[in-house]
Amino acid sequence: MNAPITLDDVRDAERRIRPFVAPSPLYDYPLLDEAVGRGIRVLVKHENFNPTGSFKVRNGLSFMTALPEAGRARGVVAATRGNHGLGIAFAGRAFGVRTSICVPVGNNPDKNAGMRALGARVIEQGCDYDESVAVAARLTEEEGASLAHSTNDRAVLAGAATLSLEMVAQAPELDAIVVAVGGGSQAVGAITVARALRPGLKVYGVQAAGASASHDGWHAKRPVSLEHADTFADGLATRSSYALTFPTLLDGLEDFITVSDAEIAEALRLLLRTTHTMVEGAGAGGLAGVLKLRDRLAGQRVAIIASGGNIDEATLLRVLRHEI
């Protein structure tokens, strides 16, 4: 399989991040199973319980612990819609590294505030994530800093994969994992771990219909870029696929589907109702995918990833009022 990381890379990342972040729980909820139906048992990997409220604290810690001391001394720059930046800022504070985080104008204000509270310099430029990536690349050159890309970095991918390493140990009987895809780090992690430890475990990808570049490219068998990314699930709002993750998605996903913002919002409400835990739009993407795939998943044990819980109040109110 075409993969940028190995199981040894994942285990090395787990060893490096473990002093800073504990394994997250994998819970089942009979009320959620009842709502999903078709005899599906849904297990929820609660990455929303992590420090910074997201799985991306793993990515940030894996990146920072793998970065040579000289790279840390130059400072670290990242682009984000929020959770990757929070992870990098958290790791920067832990190691005394200066961090600069580039976000688009109008980004989630709570995520911006969280990054600043962790000591990061937050730079608001660009209309979306992809434009913020260009800002980060320019800043890296101007300041001589180290770039922490949210997807195109092997240490980042290995960090994301540690959650799947935990999952297969916590529930060795799993039949499938349904993963929401933005850049694809979670999905690549799940594919890498499954192929090494559980070859029969199927991984399904889910992407927001308004930001479907990786999905479209998967079905076309070639990378695709879009002009716009339109979804309230900011963690999924990317306009292109990525060099390090796309080939693995192409080789390793069992299927790749899209879900509408309305379907993501309904999944978010369902998680709130049945698990009494908070997720953001991207964190509900996996459940939205299960609901769409439930005829194919009937009778199976299926894991989803509550990848983050950092939804801002205004967006949450829109979801609860059924305005999305």
From the structure above, extract its key features.
324 residues; alpha/beta; six-stranded mixed beta sheet; four-stranded parallel beta sheet; 14 helices; 10 strands
Describe this structure in words.
It is a single chain. This protein has 14 helices and 10 strands. It has 324 residues and is an alpha/beta fold. The strands form 2 sheets. The protein has a 6-stranded mixed β-sheet with strand order 1-2-10-7-8-9, with helices on both faces. Strands 5-4-3-6 form a 4-stranded parallel β-sheet, with helices on both faces.
Q: Summary?
A:
The protein is α/β, with parallel strands linked by helices and 324 residues long. The chain is 47% helix and 14% strand.
Low-confidence stretches: none
Topology, number of strands: 10
- Shape assignment: globular
Largest sheet: 6 strands, mixed
Distance between the termini: 39 Å
Strand content: 5-15%
Please state the structural category: alpha/beta
Q: Kindly report the average pLDDT value.
A: 95
- What is the element string, with H for helices and E for strands? HEHEHHEHEHEHEHEHEHHEHHEH
Rg, Å, rounded = 18 Å
- The helix fraction, in percent, is 40-55%
Strands side by side in the biggest sheet = 1-2-10-7-8-9
Count of DSSP H/I helices? 14
Oligomer: single chain
Secondary-structure topology with pairs:
Elements: H1 7-17, E1 26-28, H2 30-36, E2 41-45, H3 56-66, H4 69-73, E3 76-79, H5 83-95, E4 99-103, H6 109-117, E5 121-124, H7 129-143, E6 146-147, H8 154-170, E7 176-180, H9 185-197, E8 202-208, H10 213-220, H11 246-252, E9 255-259, H12 261-275, H13 281-293, E10 301-305, H14 313-320
Parallel strand pairs: 2-10, 3-4, 3-6, 4-5, 7-8, 7-10, 8-9
Antiparallel strand pairs: 1-2
